[in-house]
Design a protein that fits this description.
Elements: H1 2-9, H2 15-25, H3 31-43, E1 48-50, E2 58-60, E3 68-71, E4 77-79, E5 106-109, H4 112-117
Parallel strand pairs: 3-5
Antiparallel strand pairs: 1-2, 3-4
Length: 118
């Protein structure tokens, strides 16, 4: 049910948005059930968790590595259409003794919908 909701909503949604979406069809569902199942789906690799700087985590239906852009006006998250820079970790001058294993790049912008309203 939770996986179906993420795929059906087809956006980068918060756990609360998923809960509200499911609750319309299944009023007796609990918030904890949705949160718990999101955690399981992320662990199983069926949903991708996107950690948003200074915001709520989002859940993504696209599982391949990719980057995101956040509209600074409305808060919507979109995929960025570019290839992932797979060798980026190897280019870091390590001064902290870290073993870099992955990276996320988050761009900021103003989306088309907000610009149209102006």
């Amino acid at each position: 049910m939770v996986l179906d909701a993420v795929n059906e909503m087809h956006r980068h949604v918060t756990a609360d948005q998923i809960y509200t979406f499911i609750k319309e069809k299944y009023p007796s569902i609990g918030r904890g059930t949705v949160y718990r199942n999101l955690g399981i789906l992320v662990e199983e690799g069926k949903v991708r968790k996107v950690e948003v700087p200074d915001g709520s985590d989002r859940f993504d239906f696209t599982l391949e590595n990719h980057y995101h852009v956040e509209c600074v006006k409305c808060g919507e998250i979109f995929d960025v259409d570019m290839d992932v820079i797979s060798e980026l970790e190897k280019k870091i001058k390590d001064t902290h003794g870290m073993k870099y294993i992955s990276h996320d790049i988050f761009f900021k912008g103003i989306c088309r919908n907000v610009r149209r309203k102006k």
